[in-house]
Amino acid sequence: MATFSEHLRGRSDEELVRLLLRRPDLAHPSPATLASLAARATSRPSLDRALAGVDAAVLQAVEAVVALLAGSTDPAGGVRARDVVAAVGASRADAPAVRAALATATDLALLHPVGGRASDPVLRPAPGVAELLGPATAGLAAPAPHDPDPAAVPGLLAAAPAAGRAVLDALTWGPPVGVRPAAGAAAEAVTELLRAGLLARADERHVVLPRTVALALRDGRTHRAPASPPAPEDLPRRDAALVEAEHAAAAERVVRLVAGLIRLWGRTPPPVLRAGGLGVRDLRRTAVALEVTEAEAAFVVELAGVGALVRDDGEESPHHVPTTVADEWLALDLPGRWARLATWWAATPRTPSLVGTRDERGSVRPALGPDLGRPWSPRLRQAVLGLLAEAGPGAAPDAPAVREGLAWRTPRSVPPLDAVAAVLREAGWLGVLGAGALATAGRALLGDADPRPALAEGLAAALPPAVDDLLLQADLTGIVPGRPSQDLEALVDRAARVESRGGAVTVRFTPESVRDALDAGSTADDLLAELASHARGGVPQPLEYLVRDAARRHGRLRAGAASSYVRTEDPALLAGLAEDPRHADLGLVRLAPTVLAAQAPLHELLAALRAHGLAPVAETPDGQVLHAAPTLRRVAAARPRFAADDAGRGAVPPAERAAALVGVLRRAEEARAAGGSTGGAGAVVRAAAAEAAAPRADGAPTLRDRASGVAAATAAARAAGPRTGPRPSRGTADPAEALGMLREAAAGHTEVWLDVVGSRGALERRRVLPVRVDGGRVRVVDTARDAEIVVAAHRVAAVTPVDAAGTQPPDDDAAAADPRETDTA
Amino acid sequence: MTDGPLIVQSDKTLLLEVDHDQAEACRRAIAPFAELERAPEHVHTYRLTPLGLWNARAAGHDAEQVVDTLLEYSRYPVPHALLVDVAETMSRYGRLQLVAHPVHGLVLHALDAAVLAEVLRSKRTAGLVGERIDDTDVVVHASERGTLKQALLKLGWPAEDLAGYVDGEAHPIDLDTSGESDLGTDGAPRPWQLRPYQAEAADGFWHGGSGVVVLPCGAGKTLVGAAAMARSKTTTLILVTNTVSARQWRDELIRRTSLTPDEIGEYSGSRKEIRPVTIATYQVLTLKRKGVYPHLELLDARDWGLIVYDEVHLLPAPIFRMTADLQARRRLGLTATLVREDGREDEVFSLIGPKRYDAPWKDIEAQGYIAPADCVEVRLTLPERDRMLYATAEPEDKYRLAASAPGKTEVVKRLVAQHRGEPLLVIGQYIDQLEELAADIDAPVITGSTSVTERQRLFDAFRAGEISTLVVSKVANFSIDLPEASVAIQVSGSFGSRQEEAQRLGRLLRPKGDGRTAHFYAVVARDTVDQDFAAHRQRFLAEQGYAYRIVDAEDLEQATEEPA
């Protein structure tokens, strides 16, 4: 019977590469030896990750193996594959799928073969898997000494009262523990069942269905039915043209909204909250200005934040201000802008749907606030988009259907429904989806390559052809019967108010909108000529009148900027002042016979006038308002954090990296097999511990001294390991490897020598039978003293398997290094 | 992408390109479920509203037809969410039905028990329903039939009223198409026929049970009422806006039906007659004395078989409350527009009934039943002194100042001179301005204080051609038949009321004997609130396809020669 690490050693190079590719956490950082690889592969976090990534069928297969083994008479043995097939209730047709799931689990090193034929292997779960799956795997209670004899169960069941049957039925497929009813017929039935031994008492209030009874009720199966993926043909389908059209419309819209946000905040930047982020009222104001809901506004704001299009300007009273990156973004064409938005969204851990929810302290999470990052967010987006892509073109599943699909793919980590709904909603807003189905362009987000070129191309292909026609009507409305060309879009943006969008754009000309166009520098004739050049039917008379009327009124009031002014009752005093060349640098302008405006600040003006022999006095600023043109603010930007999307993703393809790593591991293995055995660890540790404990002689040791003593001793022991050259082939001082060995020993019920740094800092060696390795603690049975002890994992200095003879491993004191050497290490 | 004439916007507006080959077919196809919002020259805008969709359901269209129509004519792919929404909205109508139960009387029956449970949980229905019969039926107090329908509409589950109507007291009424009752000036009978759309409207109403017929001013709504009465052949209560309008209904009924003057009663401020056909004014019904409405008994004075509401869009709020109690009687609403300035379209829907017939203004004009019109806005630049006065006036006085600018008199004089000999109306809001104008152009003036007999005398004289020019205040807005007025000059309006503008234009749109074009002038003071209000009022007509030309008062001479 092979242990897990032996199995791993026995794998072919291809199989190891496959393992490293499918469980990438094993390769980062690179393990030094296959033993440490085995240790890492059986550590709780790594197993947790591996199980989180498997689909429901593989999980079911692993559960079945664990459940069957738990009830087996030989817990150190294995389970035959065909028993697993039967246990999950697979029909002949389902059997290949179950065997495939077992093979996948073996590939992932969640199971390993301990015998049997290749076609029907005997499998064992990797050490640690059973603990991870929990006590009631597959809804079966752990075996207990008082469980009724399997042979006797059918008889007991036949004799069970009818009322009790319902209780048993409720517990049959797990969970096996139920709350005991306080009174009534059910309580009596439970009492009856307890008496018959068909239920066991778990504690005062709970009962448990014994394993043997459950298995009898289940016909010996561990699962009701083999897990199968949800059928994609049940999903609603959308027409491809519709998907592309809605994708293009949404993409255009989101780009317009982000551009609108930049324009809005460029003029009136909202303040940054003291704790960071955008205030609720400012979000609402932004939503109103963009004409969207607050949720969508939060999404747009977050999107702009993720791309560093806006950021905190760092002033004394900080504001959210568009950055120079925003200008670069605005300079791109529509597909280019959208491709960036979509890439940012896919990669960011920030989760806009959390905006407006409350944190643990009950305060609202603001948009752009510090508390929106969720590491699972990009993974969930990938998972959801991946699922949509796999469902086939035009498939438009709703959130529950997507969640069902995810529950099949990753049953150990099913995202909450509202998170899935939020991803779908955001993807819809962004236009990655059209009419709820993944658009062609959206597929680009799933690859490893830089998605931006494909995104932009996809959108460009989906956009309807631009229209250059504007239908002008006498009720002062205009209609662009399609997607306006860039030219036309700019014109209507400038001179009209958009009333509705969709397949077409309808606009209304108002005195205000025309005035805006005039403010932007057009003249009435320019504007009319421009309108006429786009208008199929000419410019209607009321519109022409409106433009001319607006132009007539435009500019009848003049406003300008001045820093100071001079005024007097007597025009003669000002005569010649403005024209005097000596005052050229004051920038004097005659506004009226009795008023001069100056560009120079007041103190300079006063000084100059006084030098001229005049006697001016300063005035208090009586509500004098200075009109300044709106300034668009910008600050220098930090680049978006995931600059990786510019650098390309990972220079070396993962498959090559993994293959290279396997080569390294093999060489380490060979070197280890070839090397001699000079385990100096123990000696080093002893010396280090002695040194660390030395201060005790001078006075009472502080807690800190002792703690540092342990740390120093353990570290020294570990550091000594690799440095003192080849070690005994079977023992280890590498902490991860040591834990792996302990786990393996616990699973295989074998004894090991355990070197532990004791409470005084001295190294103690014990012969133990490990029971459980969990949560930083090792529970072992000291066989010599027949006592169970718990050791903190950081105190474990070395682990050595007990060889057949049961002798102590050699402890070569001669090889002990000078303690001072450890200091220099 | 097809090449259809229709563009569906995501905000549920439909844009119909009128110059397209299929435009006419498309218009016909979408008319039952989409409300025409505006109809300028190139692109007409329709809107999908829940009321519109429910109107379509009431008329027997289903969601599939609506969706198919949109898909068939749409140029671009129709937003999926919109189609889902249409189907969802339409499926809400009729899940609840008001039916007459042989044992329990009036019963609210649900085709879907969950819907019934939902509406019964709402506070709005509390007290309106009685005991629950079973999962899908609940007794309704007969007196709360209307209120319940209103409440259900507000909840978004409009009920289909299948409970039927009381027959009412029978009374023979027939259309008299022989003309025996309408002798011409030479004493010979003048036979006539219902116009096709009038007959269709009356049919549409009768088959629907209750509801609203929408026809433009001048299209002969009175005759639709008369035709409905002839179908009903029962005692009828007609509710109109004012006494003058009541008299005209009465005259028209005598002329067009077998009814004799003795069978028609007037129930107004001056007379309180209750006859088999009674015409009452809104004013008298809503008169409140010491907290009670003393004339409400009229509604129960006879066992009316039909109730006709003239100018539904003006129906005052108290009448709605009273109408809520009249749900067992057939109700016909007549109006030129379902647009209500107060936005109570939904009450019209739930209390009077869904729209049963609708014909766009321009269509009827094209058929020659209403006169074409030329609309001109004359902009008057205020003199310096008036502008200063206006600029410094209190905000509440500004409109009055601008609207009654003295310069307008000169403009009106010039327009009157231009149209000398044609029947011409000058319409305004402010009495002193009108009186001043009347003195200036030497024409009689009719205001609210003019006695009814005097008004009738002046109108008759105007009709007979004895007077060619009349100055009228807003009393002329509604239901006054001035068949041959072909020029109207509006000097001031009541702020921005859109339906007022429609009514005023309506005055002109009755077909002219010689097929002349009608002229409608609005004189507006430039750069004032007058201009802003005018813009708002005109928007409605511009949206109906009556484009305004704008001319400066100084350019008046040449501009008015243009259309000739």
UniProtKB/TrEMBL annotation, chain A:
<dbReference type="Pfam" id="PF13625">
    <property type="entry name" value="Helicase_C_3"/>
</dbReference>
<protein>
    <recommendedName>
        <fullName>Helicase XPB/Ssl2 N-terminal domain-containing protein</fullName>
    </recommendedName>
</protein>
<feature type="region of interest" description="Disordered">
    <location>
        <begin position="801"/>
        <end position="825"/>
    </location>
</feature>
<feature type="compositionally biased region" description="Low complexity">
    <location>
        <begin position="708"/>
        <end position="733"/>
    </location>
</feature>
<feature type="region of interest" description="Disordered">
    <location>
        <begin position="694"/>
        <end position="734"/>
    </location>
</feature>
<feature type="domain" description="Helicase XPB/Ssl2 N-terminal">
    <location>
        <begin position="470"/>
        <end position="592"/>
    </location>
</feature>
<dbReference type="InterPro" id="IPR032830">
    <property type="entry name" value="XPB/Ssl2_N"/>
</dbReference>
Automatic annotation (TrEMBL), chain B:
<dbReference type="InterPro" id="IPR006935">
    <property type="entry name" value="Helicase/UvrB_N"/>
</dbReference>
<protein>
    <recommendedName>
        <fullName>DNA 3'-5' helicase</fullName>
        <ecNumber>5.6.2.4</ecNumber>
    </recommendedName>
</protein>
<dbReference type="InterPro" id="IPR001650">
    <property type="entry name" value="Helicase_C-like"/>
</dbReference>
<feature type="domain" description="Helicase C-terminal">
    <location>
        <begin position="410"/>
        <end position="564"/>
    </location>
</feature>
<dbReference type="InterPro" id="IPR050615">
    <property type="entry name" value="ATP-dep_DNA_Helicase"/>
</dbReference>
<keyword id="KW-0378">Hydrolase</keyword>
<feature type="domain" description="Helicase ATP-binding">
    <location>
        <begin position="202"/>
        <end position="356"/>
    </location>
</feature>
<keyword id="KW-0547">Nucleotide-binding</keyword>
<dbReference type="Pfam" id="PF04851">
    <property type="entry name" value="ResIII"/>
</dbReference>
<dbReference type="Pfam" id="PF16203">
    <property type="entry name" value="ERCC3_RAD25_C"/>
</dbReference>
<comment type="similarity">
    <text>Belongs to the helicase family. RAD25/XPB subfamily.</text>
</comment>
<dbReference type="GO" id="GO:0005524">
    <property type="term" value="F:ATP binding"/>
</dbReference>
<dbReference type="GO" id="GO:0003677">
    <property type="term" value="F:DNA binding"/>
</dbReference>
<keyword id="KW-0347">Helicase</keyword>
<dbReference type="InterPro" id="IPR014001">
    <property type="entry name" value="Helicase_ATP-bd"/>
</dbReference>
<dbReference type="InterPro" id="IPR032830">
    <property type="entry name" value="XPB/Ssl2_N"/>
</dbReference>
<dbReference type="GO" id="GO:0016787">
    <property type="term" value="F:hydrolase activity"/>
</dbReference>
<dbReference type="InterPro" id="IPR027417">
    <property type="entry name" value="P-loop_NTPase"/>
</dbReference>
<keyword id="KW-0413">Isomerase</keyword>
<dbReference type="Pfam" id="PF13625">
    <property type="entry name" value="Helicase_C_3"/>
</dbReference>
<keyword id="KW-0067">ATP-binding</keyword>
<dbReference type="InterPro" id="IPR032438">
    <property type="entry name" value="ERCC3_RAD25_C"/>
</dbReference>
